[in-house]
Amino acid sequence: MLKMKKVWILFTLILMLGVLAACGNDDDTTSEETTDNAGTETNDTAEELSGSVVIDGSGTVYPLMARIAEEYMLTEQEGVSVEVARSGTSAGFKKFLVEDGTDFNDASRHIKEEEQQMADDLGIEVKELKVALDGLTFVIHPDNDWATELTQEDVINIFKADSDIENWSDINPDFPSEKINTYGPNENHGTYEFFYENILEKQDLNADVNLQQDYSTLVTLVGEDENAIGFFGFGYYVNNQDQLGVVSVDFGEGAVEPSLETIAEDGDYAPFTRPVFTYLNVDMAKDKAQVKDFAIYLMENVNTFAGETGFAPLPVAEVEALVEELSGI
Known about the structure:
Layout: H1 2-44, E1 51-57, H2 62-76, E2 80-84, H3 89-96, E3 104-107, H4 113-122, E4 126-140, E5 149-151, H5 152-159, E6 181-185, H6 190-199, E7 210-212, H7 215-223, E8 228-233, H8 234-238, E9 245-246, E10 248-250, E11 255-256, E12 273-281, H9 282-287, H10 289-306, H11 316-327
Parallel strand pairs: 1-2, 1-3, 5-10, 6-7, 6-8
Antiparallel strand pairs: 3-12, 4-8, 4-9, 4-12, 10-11
Helix pairs in contact: 2-10, 10-11
C-alpha cells in the first residue's frame, strides 16, 4: 500500500512539472507575440499628415519636382496634396515672396539680391535647397547634320546681337547658306537669365531670337525647323530625343556632348553646367508639418529621381547636410 502511494506521488510530480513547462512556453510565446505586435504597431503608427504643399517656379526644375511630388503622395503621405506649377523662376518668386505665398519656389538660378531683400522686408525666412545639376543644352533639328559640333564661341555668336553670324555658312563655308533661326525661353525663366548673365556675360541677345514661355512649344518649334537652334535644360532634350538633335560643344579641348556623365561642376561640360534649386519658406515649414515633411522627403530622395528626369545627382554629403538642417527646423 505504501509502495503504491509513492508511485502516485511520483506520477503527480511528473504531471505538475509537465504543466509548469507548458505554461512557461506559453508565457514565452505570449512575450514574443507581444514584442512582435509592438514592433508592427510602431511601424504602422507613422504620423499621417493632411493639407497641401504649394510649389511654383522654374519650368526646368518642374519635371524633377513633379516626379518627387507624385511619389510622395503615392507612397509617403496619401492625405497630402502637393501642387506643382511652372510659371518660371522669376514669375514664381513673385508668388513666393508675398504674404501667404507659395511654400516652395523652384529656381534654375540663385535668388537675386533684390528678391532676398524683398523676403527680408516681408520677414520671410528663405532657405535655399540645391536639388540637382543641369546642363544648358543647345538643340537642333534632327536632320541637321552639319552643326552637331560647335565651339563655345560659335554658340555665343549665334545668339548675341553684336555678331556677324546670320547664316550657317557664316560659321563654316561648308554649312548651308541658310538663315539660322534661334529659339529660347523668355525672361520669366531662370534659364534665360543664366544664359544672358553667365553665357553671354550680359551682352544683348539678337532681336530675332524667338523667346517662348512654354518649353514644350520650344521643342515643337525646333523640331519642325531644319534651320533652328535653341537652348534649354538637358532634361527637355533627353525626354524629346525623338524630335531633336543636340550640339556637342567644344570648350577648347574637343567637342563634349551633354550627358549625365559630363554634366558636373568640375566635369567636361562644366562651363555650361549649373546648379538648380528650390527655395523653402521656413516659416511655412514651421507652421505646417506637411511642408517640413515634404522638404525632408525631397532631399532624402532627390538623387533617386534626378537621373530619370534629366539631371545629374548631387554629392551624397551635400544632400545629407541639407537633410540634417531641415530636420532641425
